[in-house]
Amino acid sequence: MRVLPCGDRALIIECASLDEARGWHAALDGQVEAVLGARTVLVHGDPAALRSLIARTRPAELADTEHDAVEIPVVYDGEDLDEVARLTGLTTREVVDAHTGRPWTAAFSGFAPGFVYLAGGDPRLVVPRRATPRTRVPAGAVGLAGELSGVYPRPSPGGWQLIGRTYVPLWDLDNDPPALLRPGARVRFVEAGG
Predict the structure, then answer these.
(1) Helix (H), strand (E) at residue 187
(2) How deeply is 30 buried, as exposed, middle or buried, from its count of CB atoms within 10 A (0-12, 13-18, 19+)?
(3) How far is residue 92 from each of residues 88, 108, 183, 193, measured CA to CA in Å?
(4) What CA–CA distances, in Å, run from 70 to 51, 170, 186, 189?
(5) What is the CA 77 to chain-centroid distance, rounded?
(6) Residue-wise over 95-105: b if at least 16 C-beta within 10 A, else e?
(7) Residue 87 DSSP symbol
(8) Helical H runs in 77-148?
(9) Is there a contact between 73 and 192 (Cβ–Cβ < 8 Å)?
(10) Reduced to 3 states, what is the DSSP secondary structure of residue 171?
(11) Measured between alpha carbons, how far is 92 from 87 in angstroms, rounded to an integer?
(12) What pTM does this model have?
């Protein structure tokens, strides 16, 4: 782990893994403003006070909260499902089983309101982004990129491999909070009929 300055009112904790970053975020969030990234945690405040806090803090142990997982039903008919099967050496049925077979963890959010990067899925599903991104991905599209999965909360450009779709809203301003998923949440994809 390294602690680096970020402007004059923040520090970045660089971690070796997403789980380490999640542990630091869980330990610091609430004491200071902390923003989780893929392998980083940005903390805002007086740098000297932040360094002191970090020095006397240890990353939190991450609890397994699978029983509290948010279930997201997915129709697995995505445009890239066959390509993901080809890239992974799995059948399309095995891709679906791998995607639904274990819970994912909401690692961090970004790109668009409600877009959450999900980690911790089956390692057989690691696939590259598309060589040519689409100019428009529909809301609810479920995709894979690298070791991550995600659901597009609204129509937008995107380069992820699309394997399915859901009708569960990921971002709704009428809800409090508007985001269905927050960092640390557990997510279980469930196959749904078309």
Answers:
(1) strand 186-191
(2) exposed
(3) 10, 28, 29, 15
(4) 35, 11, 6, 8
(5) 21
(6) bbebbbeebbb
(7) H
(8) 81-88, 92-100
(9) yes
(10) strand
(11) 11
(12) 0.78
Q: Tokens 């479920």 correspond to what residue?
A: 142
Q: Structural domains in the chain?
A: 2-55 (3.30.1360.40), 66-191 (2.40.100.10)
Amino acid at 87: L
Per-residue confidence in pLDDT tens, the chain, 194 aa: 899 999 999 999 999 988 898 889 989 988 999 988 878 999 999 999 999 999 999 998 876 544 468 999 999 999 999 999 999 999 999 999 999 999 998 888 888 888 999 998 999 999 999 999 999 999 999 999 999 999 999 999 999 999 999 999 999 899 888 888 887 788 999 999 86
